[in-house]
Fold this sequence. Notes:
alpha+beta, 4-stranded mixed β-sheet, D-Maltodextrin-Binding Protein, domain 2, 11 strands, 440 residues
Amino acid sequence: MSKSPAPSRSRRSPRILIAAASLALLAPLTAACGSSGGGAEDGKTLHLWHYEAQDSALAKAWNAAIDTFKKTHPGVKVVFEQKTFDQIQQNAGMILNSDKAPDVMEYNKGNATTGLLAKQGLLTDLTAVAKQRGWTDKISQSVSVTARYNSKGEMGGDKWYGIPNYGEFVLTYYNDDLFKKYNIAKPTDFKSFEAALAAFKKAGITPLANAGNDHPAMHWLYLLALSQADDKWLNDYQLYQGKVDFHGPEWTYAVNKYKEWLDKGYFDKNDVGLKGNDMTEQFVSQKRPIMVGGNWWFGGLTTDIKNFTWSTAPYPGSEKTLGAGGNNWVIPTKAKNKKLAEDFIDITMSPEIQKLIGEDGNVPLAVKPEDISNPESRSLITAFNQYQSRNGLAFYPDWPVPGYYDTLMAATQNLMNGASAGSVLDQLAAPYDKYIATRH
């Protein structure tokens, strides 16, 4: 049985690799506006980079967008280069500050990626273009946070430096057949969710799939914290708008509840060394009836699961979930054909390409669920839209601090290995507080 594909590294990021910063040549914040800058446009060639695997839903959508671009721009040559995530992540600053910059490329969202390059003046300010072409009307306020940056390169600012055209979020996957087999009711709220966990454990089944040596376990910890959080706490944590107390009710609840579920056997402590693919294999092989994970697993599960019925639903324990807009299309300041780059982005926002994204199991930003024929995909998009409508997308826990991904993973593993709640909270607090104290 094949395993579900690993998620794009962007789902676990900005895993905030500082290599991009060290390679970039610092430049003043002089990013061009609209289609100006970058040298004279010849209008004859579009240089495009992205790093999606060629058999992925997004790559299929971008390929279709390229085909449409060629049809609508006769005489224009498209030079596409397939890159890896690491190639772009580690070398973007250096390349974009040279004459080798592409006209448009897919780039990771967040302060240490899109925000960093915007701060260094390496990305075009798309604010006026986004409004003129109607992109701002198609992208919700909550999703646009990771497309907009301030002069410090911090997300949520007033200038658009990237355009996302799909979304991503964490939700619950249920093995419906196992719920029926053991006569357990599908959860509708947190009380019934915990009742289902207890019922499966009583039947001798560990209910929750997990992976301690990857992003899923830390996602669980953050999701539990979000269940006790309000907008102020989220803005304080993610956008530095106020002080975060790691011994306050949000993180304390998360660590204690996680520890409680470990002690009750709802999580398996032996999952501490597993990777994300191991977690999905637990669900696919029917060893675990419940998995909480990103929509990026959806397509692989659709392919892999042949012998049981499954479904998705928002996690019933929280009004907020991990999620954001997808990766950004960005136009480098030194791009030579910015108008063509804008045209390509516009095509990716068209109903035809947005529908293609949705039919293949991703979450388009500019199409209605009822326009999608695949019922499972419709359900996915509907759930994402529900979170959007109530400002329920809470980004990812490692975003605020460089290198914080490793801290979160180590802290969660320590918790799974029996560390006290207090020591785990101290471990989470130390690098965050240090960064805030030195931030300028």
